[in-house]
What we know:
By secondary structure, this protein is α/β, with parallel strands linked by helices. The protein folds into 2 domains: 3-84 and 284-288, Phosphoglycerate kinase, N-terminal domain (Rossmann fold); 90-264, Rossmann fold. The chain has helices spanning 3-10, 40-43, 62-65, 67-70, 77-86, 107-110, 120-129, 136-144, 149-156, 195-207, 227-238, 248-257, 272-278, 284-288, and strands at 48-51, 72-75, 94-98, 116-118, 162-163, 167-172, 175-180, 190-193, 210-214, 242-246, 266-268. Strands 5-4-3-9-10-11 form a 6-stranded parallel beta sheet, sandwiched between helices. The protein has a 3-stranded antiparallel beta sheet with strand order 7-6-8. Strand 6 (167-172) and strand 7 form a beta hairpin. Helix 7 (120-129) crosses helix 9 and helix 10 (195-207) packs parallel to helix 11. The longest helix has 13 residues, at 195-207. It is elongated, with a radius of gyration of 22 Å.
Amino acid sequence: xxxxxxxxxxxxxxxxxxxxxxxxxxxxxxxxxxxxxxxxxxxxxxxxxxxxxxxxxxxxxxxxxxxxxxxxxxxxxxxxxxxxxxxxxxxxxxxxxxxxxxxxxxxxxxxxxxxxxxxxxxxxxxxxxxxxxxxxxxxxxxxxxxxxxxxxxxxxxxxxxxxxxxxxxxxxxxxxxxxxxxxxxxxxxxxxxxxxxxxxxxxxxxxxxxxxxxxxxxxxxxxxxxxxxxxxxxxxxxxxxxxxxxxxxxxxxxxxxxxxxxxxxxxxxxxxxxxxxxxxxxxxxxxxxx
Length: 290
């Protein structure tokens, strides 16, 4: 926002472009309602504002919601495409497959009446909310998934439509070993869902009319523990209904498993924004474009 930036922008010739530093390094970005916010100076250097990033539309940040107040505004082609595709999914009829490492993010979805297949750290957290002791994995969940008494209570009150894993894969001597749920607690950490859980979930996927999946069921970046993620994605790719895959980890897993991308209705790299959209929340970035 300084003189160097102003001079560089004003000296641009037709056909040239300039790339500024990531605006998130500016603390003023996080205070859109702050009076005399210095970022407004950037609006003075532009004629049109284009938002082409659906992945940040859930954030009420200055560059997302304030620039549109001062400039002619439009959505970019990628954002336009993302929203157009998302409008096709019938949320109420969708099967949710929720994995990954952030159980707390899914609380808004639990209030809906959709059937949920829980996996990843979310599935493990749900089991603890049911009263199951997983052993060594309990401590990991407290540290890595922010699993505290409050979250356990919130999960416990919303378990009606959630299916949880019935077996897991652990690492013993650097090898995959599958253990049924009844044999827990275990001194070994959990890295994936097991074969019985995979078969149970695949049966549900075959019956689903539309599917939303976010987060891998296990440590899909490790060859020994990619089995669950690969099997679930393969089952979704065979489903003839609408399928929505969210998040970079699953996009990477699809590429790694060599499943053709066109077998899925839509693959989104968005995480929080997509989750908020599916939960029925209004996204500040989209509202600002109206």
